[in-house]
Design the sequence.
C-alpha cells in the first residue's frame, strides 16, 4: 500500500459519498465534452496551444525579461522569488511597508503552493479568500481538493453547517442559492474593508507586460479594484509571447475546465489603476528545475484547467485530498515528485495509466507517459519499495527462462486447482478480497497448441 | 498465405488457453499461417509499469530476438501490443532492430481490419454484448476514436463485432471509462481498482448486456472476477472467442 492508496481506500469506504463525488466530476467532464465538440478545430487548437507553450518555455528567460520590461513600463513593480519563502516575504513586505493589515485574495494555486495564508496570519495579517470554494475550505481550515473546484469534496449540507457556524446562516439551511447569497454578503463586507487585493495570474503577456485573470465570480475584479494595492502572484510558466496567443488559450481554458465557452470574467490588467499600485511577484519554486528536465519539461505547459482531474477515474473515486499535494490528480502526480521525490514517490503509481488525461489535456501534456517515466526514475533512484524491486528482478529471472516459466506456471495452476480457497485467498491478498481468482486450466495455451500440431 | 508469429500474453498462456486457441482459429479462418514461437514468455510490462526498467529490459530484448523473423506479429491483447509498440523504445532506445519489430506488431482486431483488410467475419452471436474499451487499445493503439477527442468517430473492434449476425451491442453510459485493472494498480490500489470495476459492471448490466467482451483478457479477468464474486448475471468473453464462433 502507498500513502495514496491508504487514503483512497478510506475515501472509497464511504461508497455513497464516493459515488456522489464521481458523478459530480463526471458531470463536469461531460460538459467539457459538449463544449469541446462545439469547436470544430478543437484538436488543432490543442496542437497550437502545445506548440505555443513549448516555444515559450524554450525561450523562457527572454520572455520573462521582456515581460518584466513591459510591465515596468506600464508602472507595475516586479518582485522575483525563487522560493515560497521569498514569495511570502515579498507579499509581507509590500503590506508591512504600507501598514496594511487586511488582504482579500482571489483564487491562486500558487499561494496555496507557498502556504501564504498561514504565513501572513502568523504575522497579524487578516487573509480572506474570496472565491466561494476557496472561502469554504478556508473556513473549514482545509486545503482545496481540486484546483478549479476547491470545495468539490464538500456536500451542501456540510457547507450549510459551516456557514451556520461562521456566517450565522439559519441552522440546517442547505439551499445553495441561500448559502451563496450569505457568502456574497459576507464577502462584500470583506472587499469593502480590504486594504490590499491579491490575485493569481492565468496568462502573462510578454509583449505587453499585461496579464489576464479568469474567474467566474468577479471576485478578482473586486479585489483588484476596491483596495489601492493589487498584488498578482504568478509562476514563471504563466507566460505567453503575444496578446494574440490568448485567442488560443482562452478558447481552451474554460471549455476544458467547466465546459463554459469562456469564464464569466476575463480581466486584463495593464499596469496599476490611477492612484493605485500594482505588484507582480514572479515565482520559480522548482519550475526551472522542471524546465531543465527533458523528460518532464512538458508539465510546465499546464494551464491549470483541472480537466485531467475531472476525467481521471482514480481522482473521481479517491478525492483530491488523497494526493496530499497542492495540485492533485494526474498533473499533480507529475509535478509533486519533481519537488519532493521521497515524499511523493507513491503518486505516479496512483493511476491505472488509462491515458484519458492525455486526451482531454488542452495543451497535450502526455500525462500518462509522464507518470510512467516517473515510475522508472523513482525506481532507478531506489525510491520505490525494495520488495517491489526485488519481485520485479525475480520475475524477470523466471521469465527469461522458458523452462522455469513453464514449470512455475504448471505449479501455479495446480495450486489454484488443489489448494483450498481460503488459503489461496490469503496468498492472493488484495486481488482476492473482492475478486475471484482466474481459472486454472490443466493445459496451458502452449501445451494445447503443441498437442494440436501433433494431431491435427 | 500471410505468415504470422503469434504473441500470446503470459497470463493468457497460463489461465486462458481458449483465448489463444480462438485467436489461432480466427487467423487461420482468414488464411493466415500461424506459428507460436515457444521461447516467448512475457513482454515485461508488469516490471516496466512497476518502475523496474532494468528487470523489463532483458525481456524486451528477448522479444525482439524471438519475433524478428516473422513478417507480422499478432497478439490478442491491446495492452501487451502497446507495450511493444509504444514503450519498448524507452527500454531499448538504441536498438536498431526494435523499430522494425515494433512496426509489425499488431493487436488481433487491428491486424484483421488494417492488415488483412477484412471488415466483417462471417458468424453469428445472438446475444446482448457490452464492449469494454481497453484503455491501451483505445488510447495508445487508437483502435477507436474515444470520447475525449473531437475527431470523426470510429471503432475497429466494434465494427467487427457489429458485423456478426444476431448480435446486439448495448450502449453504455460511459462508453470508454477504465475498468480499473491497471496491472500492479489492481493490487496496490485495490479499493479504487475494485470501485472502478464495479461501476463498469453496473453500467454494462444497466444497459442489458449478457456478455462483456474486449480485446484484453486482463481487464476481463478483473471484471469477471468481480462479477463472479458479486454473483452478477454477466459473463466475460474475449473478442477472439466471439469472432471464432464460440458460444458464450
Sequence:
Amino acid at each position: 500500500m502507498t500513502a495514496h492508496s491508504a487514503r483512497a481506500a478510506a475515501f472509497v469506504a464511504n461508497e455513497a459519498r464516493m459515488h456522489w463525488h464521481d458523478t459530480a466530476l463526471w458531470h463536469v467532464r461531460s460538459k467539457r465534452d459538449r463544449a469541446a465538440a462545439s469547436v470544430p478545430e478543437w484538436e488543432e487548437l490543442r496542437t497550437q496551444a502545445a506548440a505555443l507553450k513549448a516555444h515559450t518555455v524554450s525561450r523562457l528567460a527572454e520572455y520573462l525579461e521582456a515581460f518584466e520590461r513591459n510591465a515596468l513600463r506600464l508602472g507595475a513593480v516586479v518582485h522575483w522569488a525563487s522560493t515560497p519563502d521569498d514569495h511570502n516575504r515579498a507579499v509581507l513586505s509590500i503590506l508591512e511597508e504600507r501598514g496594511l493589515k487586511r488582504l482579500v485574495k482571489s483564487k491562486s494555486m500558487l499561494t496555496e503552493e507557498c502556504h501564504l495564508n498561514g504565513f501572513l496570519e502568523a504575522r497579524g495579517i487578516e487573509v480572506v479568500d474570496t472565491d466561494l470554494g476557496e472561502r469554504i475550505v478556508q473556513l473549514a481550515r482545509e486545503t482545496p481538493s481540486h484546483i478549479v473546484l476547491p470545495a468539490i469534496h464538500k456536500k451542501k449540507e456540510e457547507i450549510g453547517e459551516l456557514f451556520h457556524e461562521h456566517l450565522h446562516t439559519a441552522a440546517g439551511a442547505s439551499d445553495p442559492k441561500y448559502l451563496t447569497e450569505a457568502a456574497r454578503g459576507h464577502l462584500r463586507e470583506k472587499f469593502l474593508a480590504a486594504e490590499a487585493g491579491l490575485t493569481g495570474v492565468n496568462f502573462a503577456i510578454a509583449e505587453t507586460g499585461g496579464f489576464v485573470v479568469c474567474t467566474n465570480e468577479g471576485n478578482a475584479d473586486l479585489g483588484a479594484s476596491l483596495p489601492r494595492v493589487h498584488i498578482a502572484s504568478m509562476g514563471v510558466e504563466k507566460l505567453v509571447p503575444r496578446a494574440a496567443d490568448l485567442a488560443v488559450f482562452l478558447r481552451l481554458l474554460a471549455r476544458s475546465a467547466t465546459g463554459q465557452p469562456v469564464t464569466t470574467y476575463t480581466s486584463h490588467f495593464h499596469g496599476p489603476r490611477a492612484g493605485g499600485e500594482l505588484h507582480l511577484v514572479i515565482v520559480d519554486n522548482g519550475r526551472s528545475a522542471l524546465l531543465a528536465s527533458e523528460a518532464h519539461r512538458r508539465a510546465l505547459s499546464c494551464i491549470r484547467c483541472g480537466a485531467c482531474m475531472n476525467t481521471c477515474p482514480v481522482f473521481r473515486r479517491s478525492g483530491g485530498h488523497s494526493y496530499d499535494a497542492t495540485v492533485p490528480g494526474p498533473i499533480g502526480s507529475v509535478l509533486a515528485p519533481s519537488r519532493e521525490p521521497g515524499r511523493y514517490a507513491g503518486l505516479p503509481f496512483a493511476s491505472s495509466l488509462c491515458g484519458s488525461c492525455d486526451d482531454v489535456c488542452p495543451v497535450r501534456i502526455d500525462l500518462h507517459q509522464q507518470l510512467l517515466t516517473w515510475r522508472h526514475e523513482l525506481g532507478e533512484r531506489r525510491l520505490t519499495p525494495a520488495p517491489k524491486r526485488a519481485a520485479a528482478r525475480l520475475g524477470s529471472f523466471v521469465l527469461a527462462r522458458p523452462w522455469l516459466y513453464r514449470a512455475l506456471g504448471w505449479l501455479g495452476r495446480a495450486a489454484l486447482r488443489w489448494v483450498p480457497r481460503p488459503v489461496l485467498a490469503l496468498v492472493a491478498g488484495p486481488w482476492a478480497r473482492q475478486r475471484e481468482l482466474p481459472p486454472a486450466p490443466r493445459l496451458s495455451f502452449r501445451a494445447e497448441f503443441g498437442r494440436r500440431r501433433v494431431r491435427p | 498465405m500471410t505468415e504470422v508469429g503469434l504473441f500470446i500474453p503470459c497470463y493468457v498462456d497460463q489461465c486462458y488457453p481458449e483465448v489463444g486457441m480462438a485467436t489461432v482459429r480466427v487467423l487461420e479462418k482468414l488464411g493466415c499461417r500461424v506459428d507460436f514461437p515457444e521461447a516467448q514468455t512475457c513482454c515485461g510490462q508488469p516490471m516496466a509499469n512497476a518502475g523496474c526498467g532494468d528487470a523489463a529490459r532483458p525481456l524486451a530484448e528477448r522479444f525482439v530476438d524471438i519475433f524478428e523473423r516473422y513478417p507480422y506479429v499478432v497478439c490478442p491483447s491491446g495492452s501487451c501490443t502497446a507495450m511493444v509498440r509504444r514503450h519498448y523504445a524507452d527500454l531499448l532506445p538504441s536498438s536498431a532492430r526494435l523499430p522494425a519489430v515494433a512496426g509489425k506488431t499488431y493487436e488481433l482486431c487491428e491486424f484483421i481490419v488494417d492488415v488483412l483488410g477484412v471488415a466483417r467475419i462471417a458468424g453469428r452471436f445472438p446475444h446482448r454484448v457490452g464492449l469494454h474499451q481497453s484503455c491501451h487499445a483505445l488510447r495508445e493503439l487508437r483502435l477507436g476514436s474515444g470520447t475525449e477527442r473531437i475527431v470523426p468517430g470510429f471503432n475497429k473492434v466494434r465494427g467487427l463485432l457489429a458485423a456478426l449476425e444476431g448480435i446486439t451491442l448495448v450502449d453504455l453510459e460511459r462508453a470508454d471509462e477504465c475498468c480499473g485493472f491497471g496491472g500492479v494498480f489492481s493490487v496496490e490500489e485495490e479499493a479504487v481498482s475494485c470501485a472502478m470495476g464495479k461501476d463498469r459492471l453496473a453500467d454494462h448490466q444497466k444497459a442489458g448486456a449478457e456478455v462483456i467482451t474486449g480485446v484484453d483478457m486482463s481487464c476481463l479477468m478483473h471484471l469477471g472476477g468481480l462479477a463472479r464474486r458479486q454473483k452478477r448475471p454477466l459473463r466475460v468473453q474475449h473478442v477472439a472467442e466471439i469472432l471464432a464462433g464460440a458460444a458464450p
In short: Residues 15-37 of chain A form the longest helix (23 residues). Chain A has three domains: 39-285, 297-380, 399-454. The first strand of chain A starts at residue 77 and ends at 81.
